Amino acid sequence: MTNAFYSQFAGNAIKSSVLSVEVLRDALLPNLLGDDSSGILYWAGKDLARQFPVASNDDLVTFFEQCGWGHLILQKEADDLITYELTGEPVARRSFALKAPDFMLETGFLAEQVSERFNCVSEAKITFQNKMRLQISVTIDHEQPLLGHDPQAPLEIVRPEADQQPTDDEQSPQA
């Protein structure tokens, strides 16, 4: 179901309204969840990552863009620490519109994607944040393997077809 669900919406040329997503995420959920909002969103991000596993960093970047979370950049990868930067219009928009924007959904999502990739416990935290970008560091604990782990097959990422210019052979003759 996950691949079918993802493919149906990721391949849709008509994108959902930014307003509808932001109303749910930044107005409704914080009111429903109260003081526990950040923690619950972190765990919700981890749950989403288990539902929508990706196979590579390129797929992860594409998935973030498609979700409207921003542009994800792999900054540094070491044995026990991976650092990402999240930038772009979604980050700036939420940062300027909200007094204290919460990016814990994305943070939890990255933590779980790394856990799935390395088959061990991983935790993430925001290590830098300003109005235009944030840095998320994921710590990998190779000493704590995931027990009873049954990973799902990764998503087949839908990539938008690039606008291609016709070759000379494909161009129609001009009258």
UniProtKB/TrEMBL annotation:
Q: Which domain of life is it from?
A: Bacteria
* Record-given protein name: YslB family protein
Please give the residue ranges the record annotates as the region Disordered.
Answer: 149-175
Which InterPro entries does the annotation name? Answer: DUF2507 (IPR019642), NO_sig/Golgi_transp_ligand-bd (IPR024096)
Q: What is the lineage of its organism?
A: Bacteria, Bacillati, Bacillota, Bacilli, Lactobacillales
Organism of origin is Lactiplantibacillus daoliensis
- Among the Pfam families in the record, one is DUF2507
Acidic residues biased stretches: 166-175
